[in-house]
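Deliverable D2.4 — example input (structure tokens):
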């Protein structure tokens, strides 16, 4: 294909063949670094040594594993809702901020990306321990007479996961709110709408694509979270990623671990496809309708 063949007749837009050629390295990376290893691992769950579904039967018949799956789903929902409640005001402030204030807010949101998840989780472990800053503060103001058990609880996992995943909620919502023209607010005020009604009937519907996109990102990421639940949670509050690691590293039951991976992958794929049929991906990421 000649260089001119990459472009349409107007000389500006890439042809379909040119786009596919440019995307080929990306698709090759996805195929060999993600799909092939994932499918190879899942295939282990069916071969023990003959083809069987016993491993998947164990996942759904054993109440222990069923509770782990339901706990993972519950924590993912809680983290998504809490992230949404905390992120929307931040995104709204970023969308209306200008100058140094906008730079400061953006830096606060992006700053967590400069450190690893392990470092942020370790910081929460320090804050939540018996002699940590939070327990000391509660005792200093007289709310508690002795240290509370904050670490190695489900609450610690939810709080830390929310902190880690909040930027993935803030940025899509911010992108949607930035697309709202300032004239919309003035037009709503002229029509007699107060600030609350203007937010409910103008701002929120237009920002909904960003809300949906951020919620999907946070929810799907929370389903497979490993580091934070492993460090801050207890064995009684195990999530599915920790269970998979335990089956692989300690029990060495790779076929059953592969079955757990297959169940998680199937659920994530089903959620993604369900939302993609209702909302276009450009809408989910806060683009124009």
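Example output (designed residues):
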């Amino acid at each position: 294909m000649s260089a001119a063949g990459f472009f349409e007749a107007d000389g500006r837009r890439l042809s379909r063949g040119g786009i596919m050629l440019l995307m080929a390295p990306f698709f090759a990376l996805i195929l060999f670094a993600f799909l092939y290893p994932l499918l190879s691992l899942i295939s282990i769950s069916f071969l023990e040594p003959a083809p069987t579904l016993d491993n998947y039967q164990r996942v759904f018949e054993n109440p222990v594993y069923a509770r782990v799956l339901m706990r993972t789903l519950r924590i993912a929902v809680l983290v998504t809702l809490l992230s949404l409640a905390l992120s929307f005001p931040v995104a709204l402030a970023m969308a209306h901020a200008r100058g140094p204030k906008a730079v400061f807010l953006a830096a606060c949101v992006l700053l967590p990306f400069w450190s690893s998840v392990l470092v942020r989780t370790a910081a929460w472990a320090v804050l939540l321990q018996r002699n940590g800053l939070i327990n000391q503060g509660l005792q200093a103001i007289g709310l508690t007479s002795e240290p509370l058990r904050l670490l190695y609880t489900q609450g610690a996992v939810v709080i830390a996961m929310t902190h880690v995943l909040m930027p993935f909620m803030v940025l899509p919502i911010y992108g949607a709110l930035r697309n709202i023209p300032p004239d919309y607010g003035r037009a709503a005020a002229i029509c007699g709408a107060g600030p609350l009604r203007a937010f409910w009937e103008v701002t929120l519907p237009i920002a909904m694509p960003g809300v949906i996109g951020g919620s999907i990102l946070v929810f799907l990421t929370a389903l497979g979270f490993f580091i934070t639940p492993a460090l801050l949670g207890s064995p009684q509050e195990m999530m599915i990623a920790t269970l998979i690691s335990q089956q692989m590293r300690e029990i060495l039951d790779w076929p059953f671990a592969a079955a757990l991976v297959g169940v998680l992958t199937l659920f994530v794929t089903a959620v993604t496809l369900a939302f993609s049929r209702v909302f276009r991906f450009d809408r989910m990421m806060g683009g124009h309708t």
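The two ends are 35 Å apart (CA to CA).
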